[in-house]
Design the sequence.
């Protein structure tokens, strides 16, 4: 393959973004309960967008779809953004991230970021850690038609970069990153700096799994020559 672009996840891949997801879920469920949604339809293991999908189904089944759900969704995401902004102020780079970004940029590759985080905390992190200039495209949850693992999130990134799926690599720490890539036919590289084990990433479809981003530039060269 000819690698023209590398697309990174943010949390757990490039930065240690320590959002208190237990507090996020608690505040989110409190908000949804105040909107008349029973707590029993949600699970403690639900991601934010899983909970919102369940909320939408429940509300539509009771004739509360459309603008009513959009109002609830916006309120819910504002709760999440507040927690993300709190975490963004203490975010640090994952070891090896800066060196990998510099090496990829010097090699002439296009670089992008896709994250389920909101635009405000993402931009805060990129400014504070002086990373923004490395990226040719940044796609947050607001600027994608759907979020990973839905491949539409990655499709929006590739469209901005002007590359085909077969010309890109996705680098991420979670099975959602890998599944998003595989759903679009993009080669996925898992990195064990975040939430998923090597076995999890391999089962999800990662072509290669690395333990540090310092391994990435040589891997990109290897894949490009194969």
Sequence:
């Amino acid at each position: 393959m000819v690698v023209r672009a590398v697309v990174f996840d943010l949390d757990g891949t490039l930065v240690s973004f320590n959002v208190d997801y237990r507090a996020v879920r608690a505040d989110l469920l409190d908000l949804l309960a105040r909107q008349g949604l029973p707590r029993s339809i949600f699970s403690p293991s639900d991601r934010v967008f899983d909970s919102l999908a369940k909320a939408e189904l429940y509300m539509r089944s009771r004739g509360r779809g459309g603008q009513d759900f959009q109002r609830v969704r916006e309120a819910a995401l504002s709760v999440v953004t507040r927690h993300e902004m709190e975490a963004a102020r203490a975010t640090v780079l994952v070891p090896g991230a800066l060196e990998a970004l510099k090496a990829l940029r010097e090699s002439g590759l296009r670089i992008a970021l896709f994250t389920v985080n909101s635009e405000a905390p993402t931009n805060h992190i990129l400014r504070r850690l002086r990373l923004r200039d490395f990226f040719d495209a940044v796609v947050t949850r607001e600027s994608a038609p759907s979020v990973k693992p839905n491949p539409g999130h990655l499709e929006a990134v590739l469209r901005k970069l002007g590359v085909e799926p077969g010309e890109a690599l996705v680098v991420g720490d979670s099975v959602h990153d890998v599944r998003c890539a595989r759903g679009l036919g993009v080669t996925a590289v898992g990195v064990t700096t975040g939430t998923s084990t090597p076995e999890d990433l391999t089962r999800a479809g990662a072509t290669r799994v690395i333990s540090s981003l310092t391994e990435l530039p040589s891997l990109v060269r290897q894949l490009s020559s194969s």
About this structure: Residues 67-88 form the longest helix (22 residues). Residues 82 and 121 are 9 Å apart (CA to CA). The first strand starts at residue 5 and ends at 8.
